[in-house]
Automatic annotation (TrEMBL), chain A:
InterPro entries, per the entry: NIR_SIR_4Fe-4S, NiRdtase/SiRdtase_haem-b_fer, Nit/Sulf_reduc_fer-like_dom_sf, NO2/SO3_Rdtase_4Fe4S_dom, NO2/SO3_Rdtase_4Fe4S_sf
Residues of the Nitrite/sulphite reductase 4Fe-4S domain: 119-271, 447-545
Keyword field: 4Fe-4S, Heme, Iron, Iron-sulfur, Metal-binding, Oxidoreductase
Annotated protein name in UniProt: Nitrite/sulfite reductase
UniProtKB/TrEMBL annotation, chain B:
Organism: Paenirhodobacter populi
Pfam family of the protein (one): DUF2849
InterPro entries given in the database record: DUF2849
Chain intervals with Basic and acidic residues compositional bias: 95-106
Protein name: DUF2849 domain-containing protein
Taxonomic placement: Bacteria, Pseudomonadati, Pseudomonadota, Alphaproteobacteria, Rhodobacterales
Disordered: annotated segments: 82-106
Length: 553, 106
């Protein structure tokens, strides 16, 4: 894992000291709220509905056991004993007091963490495949490049005041577990004639105007990456709109100008600045890459694992749902579900964080990941250790065997926390999960991605859910719009609205009607909901949803 | 025709703690919605808002929120304000927990 250089350490400490002074000046009246607000946002501190919220960066979703333990300590000492993992692979604390935040920032710096550029119109945390470095299907580990982007983009003087926030995602596999098509810039490692390069997509994003990214370069040599990123973002910085917040993302810039005109401007800028990159970045990349070398994998036999599989049905079920193939035969990737039925998706208590940290130390080479689907991953576990890991998770309430099922939902905080939300999302997720468990249909339905957002900004990725749910405020009442047919993977698609929305307590029955129609219409249990939807189109599902009263609903 | 003014309470967040606060008839801040002053006169409400903007060392983001008279004091009208007056629905935290701990009037 990446360890801070002296430069990183000094920079983060200096920023922590600056922020402490800024908070002091706000509290003693030297700074007005108008002056302080951009400063606190540069350090990830929001003011939400009930309290401040601190968003802490987890670069490319990778953290050490020690870092996870420190998050547990912060949750207990300065918050309410839990944290919320987000679709940007970060963590949010929902109850910090302004007067405590400088101490929290110091405690983060103690374990090489910070909250810099987790807000504001800057380049945010670069996200990646949660299985990076462990997946059997990747061309290369994308995290060294993600770290290079982090170092280049942090405090980049030209990109601190972009027209709007800017999100980059990188994947090392065709399977795309990083939703690169829904990012301002999406990067995919590709191979051509034995050389690894990058496919570059630009102009994706969800929110009010969802769009999928378009390919701007099929194959970019790795050595050209930083100048090319700089050219894209410089072009956007000049061409992007600042007159209207809702038209300020790069997706609108690309859409309004057309990909060809945008690309021409990028290529011209790239040609101009490429010679100024001397190659130092590639030397840095080599140093970074060495720090992402895989651990020395144990060579334990898998007999005990196979024995447990044959005798323990609970373990067998968990393995079937929560384990992914590792690139090393006698190892596995463990997804720890933070989606226990009836609980808040993505939340973990301080105790649970410590259990996961201990498991990482004992069985996972000290490493953890946060997935954009709001789960925690142990990327490298010897199969021989899986029964022990499972037993520990069971004791901590972390062994829910539902990865990929209906209850494994993405869900934003919604109006239970967020000042921007127009409706609640968490209780909708809780109700859906418990209902389908109680009626015994969750397994029968099988693989399904439901994604819920509490407002049009789409932090809950509803557009790219097989079933998307968007909470709105319709004349002072919560109302939920349903979309169908979205997808986040290599077949990325934006879902279509079904029609009129549903009241808060009508959402679960509405989703049940859609899913009962699916069960009746599918060719076999092997045909998933999204496959059936692609075969049949929206009509039979809309019919199930609205029936004969469709126009009047 | 000018739109009719509907009753309001003046609300904000506490600068140091972040908690939701409301202005009382005496011009102090309370953490309890029912203890807020129900402002039924538009000019009066605007003056109160100006006063709150002058208290940037105590509160943040003051605004006027629709409210109605209830048996125990003003009640929220919109569900957003109802959530702000209680706390989140997924945990017993925020004001709903404070009132059980007897700390609603700190």
């Amino acid at each position: 894992m990446y360890e801070y250089s002296d430069f990183d350490e000094a920079f983060v400490r200096a920023r922590a000291a600056q922020f402490r002074q800024q908070v002091e000046r706000r509290l003693d009246g030297s700074l007005t709220e108008e002056e302080f607000r951009p400063l606190r946002l540069m350090n990830g501190l929001y003011l939400q509905l009930h309290a401040y919220m601190l968003r802490i960066a987890i670069p490319y979703g990778t953290l050490s056991a020690g870092q996870m333990r420190q998050l547990a300590m912060i949750a207990e000492r300065w918050d309410e004993g839990y944290g919320h993992f987000t679709t940007r692979q970060n963590i949010q604390f929902n109850w910090p007091k302004l007067v405590d935040v400088p101490d929290i920032i110091d405690a983060l710096a103690d374990v090489q963490m910070h909250a810099i550029q987790t807000s504001g119109n800057t380049i945010r945390n670069t996200t990646t495949d949660v299985f990076a470095g462990a997946a059997a299907d990747e061309i290369a580990d994308p995290r060294p490049i993600a770290e290079l982007i982090r170092e280049w983009s942090t405090d980049h003087a030209e990109f601190q005041f972009l027209p709007r926030k800017f999100k980059i995602a990188i994947t090392g596999t065709e399977a795309d577990r990083a939703v690169i098509r829904a990012h301002d810039i999406g990067l995919q490692l590709v191979e051509k004639d034995g050389e690894i390069g990058l496919k570059v997509l630009v102009g994706g994003g969800l929110g009010r105007t969802p769009m999928l990214g378009q390919v701007i370069r099929d194959f970019l040599p790795v050595a050209d990456l930083l100048p090319y990123l700089e050219a894209v973002i410089s072009t956007y910085n000049l061409m992007g709109r600042r007159d209207n917040k809702y038209k300020a993302r790069i997706k609108i810039t690309v859409f309004e100008n057309g990909l060809d005109a945008f690309k021409a401007a990028v290529e011209e800028e790239f040609a101009r600045i490429r010679p100024t990159f001397s190659g130092v970045d590639q030397e840095i990349l080599r140093v970074i890459a060495a720090q992402f070398a895989p651990p020395a994998f144990k060579n334990d036999p898998v007999d005990s694992y196979e024995a447990a599989l044959s005798v323990d049905p609970v373990f067998r079920r968990w393995v079937a749902r929560n384990i992914t193939a590792h690139k090393v035969e006698n190892h596995a990737i463990v997804t720890i579900s933070l989606k226990e039925h009836g609980k808040t998706p993505g939340d973990a208590t301080a105790d649970q964080m410590r259990v996961m940290a201990d498991l990482a130390d004992r069985y996972g080479y000290g490493e953890l990941r946060i997935s954009h689907e709001q789960n925690v991953v142990l990327p490298h576990v010897a199969k021989a250790d899986l029964p022990a890991v499972h037993a520990e998770l069971l004791r901590a309430g972390l062994a829910t065997a539902n990865v990929g099922l209906l209850s494994d939902m993405i869900c934003c905080p919604g109006m239970d926390y967020c000042a921007l939300a127009t409706a609640r999302s968490i209780p909708v997720a809780e109700n859906l999960a418990t209902h389908f468990r109680d009626i015994g249909l969750e397994d029968e339905i099988g693989n399904l991605k439901i994604k819920i957002s509490g407002c049009i900004n789409a932090c809950g990725h509803h557009h790219i859910g097989h079933i998307g749910i968007l909470g709105l405020d319709r004349a002072g009442v919560e109302n939920y719009q349903i979309t169908l047919g979205g997808d986040a993977g290599p077949q990325a698609a934006i879902g279509d609205k079904t029609g009129p929305g549903f009241a808060y307590d009508e959402v679960v029955p509405a989703i049940e009607r859609i899913l009962r129609a699916y069960l009746a219409l599918r060719e076999s249990p092997a045909e998933t909901f999204i496959d059936a939807f692609r075969r049949l189109g929206a009509a039979p599902f809309k019919e199930a949803l609205y029936g004969e009263n469709r126009d009047a609903a | 025709m000018a739109r009719k003014f509907t009753p309001k309470v003046l609300t904000a967040n506490d600068l140091r703690l972040g908690d939701v606060v409301y202005m009382t008839a005496s011009g102090d801040w309370t953490r309890c919605h029912a203890e807020a002053e129900l402002l039924e006169d538009e000019a009066d409400a605007e003056l109160r808002l100006l006063k709150a903007h002058g208290q940037s060392g105590i509160v943040v983001g003051a605004y006027l929120a629709d409210a109605k008279a209830g048996p125990d004091g003003p009640e929220p009208v919109h569900f957003r304000e109802a959530f702000r007056s209680r706390g989140p629905s997924n945990y017993d935290l925020g004001k709903q927990a404070d009132s059980k701990r007897g700390t609603a009037h700190v």
